[in-house]
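Before a colleague's protein record goes any further, I have to sign it off. What it holds is a sequence and that sequence's fold in token form. Would you go through it and say whether the fold makes sense for this chain? The record follows directly below this note.
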Amino acid sequence: MHGTSAVLTELSALDLSRWQFGLTTIYHFLFVPLTIGMVLLVALMQTAWVRTGEDKFLKMTKLFGKIFLINFAMGVVTGIVQEFQFGMNWSDYSRFVGDIFGAPLAMEGLLAFFFEATFIGLWIFGWNRLPKKVHLATIWMTVLGVWLSAYFILAANSFMQNPVGFEMNEAKNRAELVDIGAVLTNIVALNQFPHTITASIMFAGAVMTAVAAYHLKRNQHVASMYPSLRFGLWTTLIGGAGTVLSGDGLGLAMVKTQPMKMAAAEALYNTTNNASFSLFTWGTPDGKSELFSIRIPNLLSFLSTHTWDGEVEGLRDLNAQYVQTYGAATGVTDFMPTLWITYWAFRWMIGLGVATAMVAVVGLWLTRKGKINLPNWTWNVAIWASIMPLLAISVGWMFTEMGRQPWLVFRLMPTAAGVSPGINGVDVLISLIAFTAIYAVLAVVEFKLLLAAVKAGPVEEEAHDEKSELLPVAY
């Protein structure tokens, strides 16, 4: 009985720790893509104002600058909470990869974050103090800092997907850094970065479109909101195209480094040289076999190898190979991820992204040549469609992380081996409830601040005056 209780406590600690990290990560990442994408759009709008002197670009810059800053601040707060868990719930994992993670995370915190924070400060308070072009340079430096920060984080995450640049210290049972260049040029990071950036730009464009649609629906601020709408729609479409192209490169990297993940994404059970792409697959309850599917012949081979008859490894063959290679050392007897999650997350990611791009195409057609006299439902679609790219990004990351299971660090550390040994399910449950409550409060604060900024719209009075402040006193 005591042994059973101990096993249940251990399992609950592991499962709850995974839930907690997933919750905090997804919540934190709600703010990250908008920050990454919106900072670029703000820089482009301010550049247009500096070059043309037109008031509409200044109004756009300040309105969407507020949205960027509110979102950036909330992202910082939630990111700090997320990092606590490495020591709280995943201490064995932290000891195992700390030497590797320390370098890119230190670069992110000490270099990129302070870089972007410095220039954000100069941008906020430099409106009535710096020359136009110098002030413009501060927002472009902010873009560089934000994107550098994203790259360092992705480099750290990519080590979990494809560990490189390390040597195992068997005596200490930990991975130790020997080549920081290899970590920073990991094939997964090099392909994940443009995919993340373009998806974030797509999301920022959709948010910009939604804000403009809110005001145009009410026939407000047309002079600045119509160009905002068109800019947002084009940004959404261009970002979507970039996401597709970068996704192709990331898919090739995934096939090379994590073939099990690609097989799980497509519910491909058997290795084949003419792999079909699954539009819909229905499997047995245990996920081990296919019962029914609708497929496009040879398409998966082309996506995976860029040849129509390229070999794609199947789940059963890979699982047998992993059991033989890693089973004895890890105690893991089944290396298949949870197929229904990976399969459907991959499809929702693609479907939501395509739907967002289609909304942008239709929106560009409907609003061509200055047309804004549209039915209310079209504006409502534009507003609510802004959620779709965020959901696509979220399920995309769910696929990325769940597709790696049961590995915490692929080929090196199973997830069960990374949880802190001194905690139990009750400890984690208490912190999980606390974090959930805190995040609920932060969500309300974030929503109210953003809604207030959106409803206020662009500043109409003295919009041409360089001395007007970016933020009201309340911010």
In short: The radius of gyration is 24 Å. The first strand starts at residue 166 and ends at 169.
